[in-house]
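User: Teach me something about this protein's shape.
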Amino acid sequence: MSRFTGRVAIVTGAASGIGKEIALRLAAEGGIPVIADLNLDAANATANEIKALYKDKGGGGDSFAVAMNVPTRPRSKRASPTPWPSTARSTSW
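Assistant: First, the predicted structure itself:
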């Protein structure tokens, strides 16, 4: 069992670069990355890539994308416009 199995994490800037690598690693360790980025098309592409890599291995197969801008001050307490996958349990570290 991997250390992030069944855990959900919002990864900001995850459509490319370091954020994408973090999301890929999280999925490889059983986690469910929420691909959050300003560029929704690129975020969807990353989520689809993760789903393809981990669809039969659990975890990352439930990855999905959201368009998100992370301002200096949060404008809302609600970060997720869609419900979490039913297989996920959220946790704060």
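Now, about its shape. The chain has two helices and three strands. The two ends are 19 Å apart (CA to CA). If you'd like, I can walk through any region in more detail.
User: That's plenty for now, thanks!
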